[in-house]
Amino acid sequence: MNNNKPVTPIEKLTYPIQEFLHKEASGGILLIIATITALVWANSPFADSYHHLWHTYLSVNLGNLALNYSLHHWINDGLMVIFFFVVGLEIKRELLVGELSSVKKASLPIAAALGGMIFPALIYSIFNFGKEGASGWGIPMATDIAFVVGILALLGKRVPLALKIFILALAIVDDIGAVLVIAIFYTAEISLTSLMIAGGLIILLILMNKLGVRNLLLYSLVGVALWLAFLKSGVHATVAGVLLAFTIPASARINTKKFFNETNSLIKDFDSAGEHGDNVLTNPERLDIVDQIENNCEKILTPLQRFEHGLHPWVSFFIMPLFAFANAGVSIGEGLTSSLVNPIGIGIILGLFVGKQIGIFSFSYLAVKLKLAAEPEGVSWKKIYAAAILAGIGFTMSLFIANLAFASPELLDTAKVGILSGSLISGIVGFLILKSALNKK
């Protein structure tokens, strides 16, 4: 690769999106591996050890505060807060400078996401209204962007960037919907005292932002306190991650012109402070200049960028695969048939596969025809339809909501079979239709 090749304006504009998609595609592969491993283990002669592992308890004592939870709980209510924090950072970035930053840009993905949430919930409710599985209506509303991007990666560069951006923006809006559903409808008994403490911490975070605090450690410490407050409040702890993300500063301490001038001057000072090839460690003046350049680099990057850049690999390559490994392991032996004919299983499968494609495609088509949104440039309706089917891969967020919806292990296992089946069907059919659309000249 020629590193001296000039970078075009469009490449500069789409670089953050391309970098995000690359990480999501790689993370999607790990998700698949983790899911298959969990299913194999949970259906092997060693299945008991799989379930016993996640029910191992880990205690942490902070003064008078004692946290004694299973590994499964630590993952779902602890590590997944970081996942939702990164989701919140991505939402904020898209609202400020991305595909949701203007009405013109946001109209189509918002319309598509609304259809993709309403129809799956309706279809699920038709099969489960008034029954024991009624509370699971939020399960088929979700889209797992990591899996979707992983499938798009299998088709290579033939997939138009405009289609990838459409799916990404749709998934971001979908995440907003999922967070609202979790916060409003999947909440236990409320502790007003804990909520008041959480409210005070959010005000503190906003004040820190307004006063120009840019230290990531300070935001992290207050963020941990916010998580603890939500953990004890009754509102699911992952909501703390999203709220924290929206208080993180999105402005740099210095502008690009000042960064360029100061850094350029420092580089000249660095050059004149010693001979070429000198070890920086033996030259205090050069070492001081390097520290100043590093400080300038921190100033030009916003805290939002620094958090997102630092945490995204951990979320994609560790937290989400670990979540899948801990939650996807369900026995699919004799109970497979009964799960697939159960109203919960049927509702989830049809919600993900049928509801998603009908909702996303119909709302997208109507939004364009009513001139409420613009059709993505160079993207045919067949490709949008294929994307709508792929959005039926609900996996990570669907599993997460299922854990909140069902306390009964039997109902939860049925839901997991439905999620895996609906996601698998959506992935295979969506891939084949998109591949067919891309093969046409």
Question: Globular, elongated, flat, extended or rod-shaped: what is the shape?
Answer: globular
Number of strands: 2
Radius of gyration from the CA trace?
Answer: 24 Å
Q: What kind of oligomer do you see?
A: single chain
State the helix count. Answer: 17
* Uncertain runs: none
Q: Structural class per helix/strand content?
A: mainly alpha
Strand order of the largest sheet: 1-2
Strand content: under 5%
The share of residues in helices is over 70%
Q: What about the largest sheet?
A: 2 strands, antiparallel
How far is it from the N-terminal to the C-terminal residue, by CA? 29 Å
Order of helices and strands: HHEEHHHHHHHHHHHHHHH
Q: What is the residue-mean pLDDT, rounded to a whole number?
A: 86
Protein architecture, described:
73% of the residues lie in helices and 3% in strands. The chain has 441 residues and is mainly α. Helix 13 packs across helix 17 (409-439). The longest helix is centred in the first third of the chain and has 34 residues, at 9-42. The protein is globular and about 75 Å long. It starts with 8 loop residues before the first helix and ends with a helix. The mean pLDDT is 86.
Compact summary:
The chain is an all-alpha fold and 441 residues long.
Which characteristics define this entry?
441 residues; mainly alpha; two-stranded antiparallel ribbon; 2 strands
Topology of helices and strands:
Layout: H1 9-42, H2 47-54, E1 57-62, E2 65-70, H3 71-97, H4 103-128, H5 145-154, H6 161-185, H7 192-210, H8 216-231, H9 238-247, H10 256-272, H11 284-300, H12 303-327, H13 335-341, H14 343-369, H15 381-390, H16 395-405, H17 409-439
Antiparallel strand pairs: 1-2
Helix pairs in contact: 1-5, 1-12, 3-6, 3-9, 3-12, 4-6, 4-14, 5-6, 7-8, 8-9, 10-11, 12-16, 13-17, 14-15, 14-17, 15-17, 16-17
